[in-house]
Write a structure and sequence with these properties.
Blueprint: H1 2-41, E1 51-52, H2 60-70, E2 76-89, E3 91-102, E4 109-118, E5 124-135, E6 146-147, H3 156-165, E7 172-185, E8 187-198, E9 205-214, E10 220-227, E11 236-238, E12 244-246
Antiparallel strand pairs: 1-2, 2-3, 3-4, 4-5, 6-7, 7-8, 8-9, 9-10, 11-12
Length: 249
């Protein structure tokens, strides 16, 4: 009678040991998976240094952080347009291109660079605002007017136009970051926010607004460039016959 009981108890012990071993293995596997996933998510982010992001799209998560940071702001109203850079610190910093409008009657809208700090506890604040004098592109409900794209992702057409227009360019090179506006004329006009870098050893880089015209035959040229902090000048609109007219986005 005792023998079956002993055998039964041994089986129970074996089952218990098996359950503990499997649970430990699964726990370690889960921890390893989460660790690897976290590592992959930060592989391209330099801790302590600013890193260019791969997409300018304002995600729901970033918009939530932005809204939290801008919630008690007075005097200016900011609308996020393109996500530019991030920095891992004790929390995270964000650099965002925005449309900024003073909260006064008939105020015009200009582009601004806004830095946001998100703390580890989830709270956030705007740490700096750099306002430009570059008028923001707004949609015009008229034939030949400007259109603001639904997403700041640079389209293949805009990228190709910029590449063609830059073939004979010297002194600087442009990396397209965000598409801010398009305009259908006798061809197409584009406003592309770019990272501009001087083509000299250790050349400095800056952000710039690049205005590109592409005719119906695919020929393209840069009609104007504006570094972020430079004084405003009216961008040039060029049609197929190369006649210039005033064209302010």
């Amino acid at each position: 009678m005792k023998k079956p009981i002993v055998v039964f108890l041994i089986i129970l012990v074996i089952i218990a040991i098996t359950v503990v071993v499997v649970a430990a293995f699964n726990s370690n596997s889960i921890k390893r998976y989460l660790s690897e996933k976290k590592q992959k998510s930060t592989d391209n982010i330099s801790v302590g240094g600013w890193t260019k992001v791969s997409s300018p799209v304002i995600t729901d998560e970033l918009r939530a952080v932005f809204d939290k940071a801008a919630g008690e702001l007075t005097g200016m109203s900011y609308e996020p347009v393109a996500y530019l850079e991030t920095q891992l610190v004790a929390g995270r910093n964000y650099l965002v291109l925005c449309k900024g409008t003073a909260t006064v009657p008939d105020a015009k809208t200009y582009y601004s660079l806004v830095k946001i700090y998100e703390r580890l506890d989830g709270s956030a604040e705007i740490t700096s605002m750099t306002d430009s004098v570059i008028p923001a592109v707004v949609t015009e409900d008229i034939d030949g007017g400007w259109t603001v794209p639904d997403t700041p992702e640079v389209t293949a057409e805009a990228k190709k136009a910029l590449e063609n227009a830059s073939k004979t360019l010297t002194g600087a090179e442009y990396r397209p970051v965000a598409l801010l506006g398009t305009q259908v004329v006798s061809g197409n006009n584009y406003v592309i926010f770019c990272e501009m870098k001087a083509t000299v050893p250790n050349g400095a880089s800056d952000y710039a607004f690049v205005y590109v015209y592409e005719d119906l035959k695919g020929n393209a040229q840069i009609t104007d460039t504006k570094q972020f902090n430079q004084p405003d000048t009216t961008p040039t609109r060029v049609d197929e016959e190369q006649t210039a007219t005033t064209n302010e986005p």
